Amino acid sequence: MILLGVNIDHCATVRQARYPAARGQEGGAVEPDPVEFALASERAGADGITVHLREDRRHIQDRDVWRLREKISTRLNLEMACTPAMTEFALKLKPYSVCLVPENRAEITTEGGLDIVGNRERVRAVVDAMNTAGIKTSLFIDPDAPQIELGAKLGAPWIELHTGAYANACFGQPRAAEFERLRVGANVGHQLGLTVNAGHGINYVNIAEVRTLPHLHELNIGHSIVSRALFGGVAEAVREMKRLMNA
Ligand code: PXP
Question: What residues are in contact with ligand 1 under a 6 Å CB criterion?
């Protein structure tokens, strides 16, 4: 059974569009509350909750993360940049896992995998700190063998393969080629003893193919679930995705 991590960033995006000064406060007119979204996701079967605390705080706020830590009953996965400030934050927060992602201020969302080959020492420092603290590190990387191999060497237990290039590729040969990259990447990760997760751009249509990737442990899905929830509610959106993931 493939597990579902629900990424609630874009629930916070909607709140920040109107209440940027609220800094993650809840109640009164300030809505929607991402923590309520997380709790509703859990009730509908989410296996974990993911948030990305970005340096520019464009969606999730610090207070959201602390409230989640207190209130959710599944696993909290904190996506973060590979910086000393975020490392310090994570060591205080003690989430179940952290997922190291690249951050570029101009991007609309996380656009490519973390280049761990080019940032080896920075990644090593965070992985070592998390291993010592008993927090699992996941590396959000493109499905390329050198990145995956180095991830294993640095001692990270998990990888999250970036499915964005696959999701954005045109149907037909370009998409088939990206799927093949993911398939090979998942096999390489598994052979190296890594837990293989995947995420970015997964939706109610492409899940039919994504779920056939080998060795998948968990998928992190955000935008499509938040979007679907606008029409049928959070519970239906989460249940339908879980049903399609494990059809
Ligand atoms: N996984 C990671 C590491 C991400 O950065 C994101 C998006 O921020 C997701 C999964 C979820 O992507 P989407 O919102 O497209 O489902």
Answer: 7, 9, 52, 79, 99, 101, 109-110, 140, 160, 199-202, 220-224
Burial 146-159 (b: 16+ CB within 10 A, else e): ebbbbbbebebbbb
Over residues 136-185, the pLDDT tens digits come to: 999 999 999 999 999 999 999 999 999 999 999 988 889 999 999 999 99
Tokens 């948030």, located at residue:
51
Q: For residues 208 and 61, what is the distance between their CA atoms, to the nearest angstrom?
A: 33
- φ/ψ region of 27 (left if φ > 0, alpha if ψ in -120 to 50, else beta) reads left
Tokens encoding 104: 């570029």
Q: Please state the pTM of the whole predicted model.
A: 0.96
Within 10 A of 118 (CB to CB), how many other CB atoms are there? 9
Centre of ligand 1 from the C-alpha of residue 7, in Å: 7
